[in-house]
Automatic annotation (TrEMBL):
SUPFAM superfamilies: Periplasmic binding protein-like II, Winged helix' DNA-binding domain. CDD domains: PBP2_LTTR_substrate (cd05466). Pfam families: HTH_1 (PF00126), LysR_substrate (PF03466). Keywords: DNA-binding, Transcription, Transcription regulation. One of its GO terms (molecular function) is transcription cis-regulatory region binding. This is LysR family transcriptional regulator. Residues 1-58 form the HTH lysR-type domain. Belongs to the LysR transcriptional regulatory family.
Amino acid sequence: MNINKYRLMIKAIELGNLTKAASELGYTQSGASHQIKSVEEELGIKILQRDRSGTKLTTEGRLLLPYIREAISCEDKILATANSIIGMQIGSLKVGAFTSVSLVLLPIIIGQFHQLYPKVQIEMLTGQGSYPEMEQFLMDGIADCSFVSGSNAQGLNLIHLFDDSLCLVLPPNHPLASTDSPIMFQQLNEVPFLMPTDGNNTDILQLCHKHNFTPSVAFTMHDDLALLAMVENGLGCTVLPKLILNNYPHKAAIKYLEGYPTRSISIATRTDEVPSPIVSTFLELTQTIIHQRPDLTN
């Protein structure tokens, strides 16, 4: 079995386009088509369907997908073990991360990892940035490790990194901006609310439910930094993690909320898999950086 054919197939599914997958993996268009055709002939099943909308799995292909991923994962483990013998000179690592971690922490962690192991290829998986998506990346075998928040999912091994404060963000000239004490949710009844659509949405909805508060949502937006800019320009308030607020310049007023809410940030792997040497090294480096750089997380 030529696993590279299956890697090409998975990449075509992820990108929704065989031509783009071929280009990314170094195949010609005809070469990629030949590889896919040979897999389908070998199995006697049509796996990919190509039309004007792109490349997608057939019904039969969807049934085979978990086993294809498992075959690729097995080869990766063989290579990873061999890499440990030769000092991790080659290899790959896929890391799932939601928005704030991908903006603040991962550039530092990946930068140091790359200095130590320059030939290890690292792919950052952000998706839509939601917490459940980070867990699903792991469970589906797409990510080798993922940053997660408040997870209680079965089958994951969690390494707690730090607790991140969730803060109220107000326009600089808002009347509540001069308040010294924590802001009560009921004080926000008349304030337009800017709702993030990534993982922070989960945090906010849980807080609102806990305090029996229904926000007056004026806008929703995926980008945390865009939300911050909208608050600065007086369009409303929002709740963002201190991890973002401490590491990006802004003019907004930052206030603690009643109860001083936080979110728990961990890095996770699957309990049914022994982390490869590359993954283990990445986990250790992540913990070291978090310990040595309290300015990032406090």
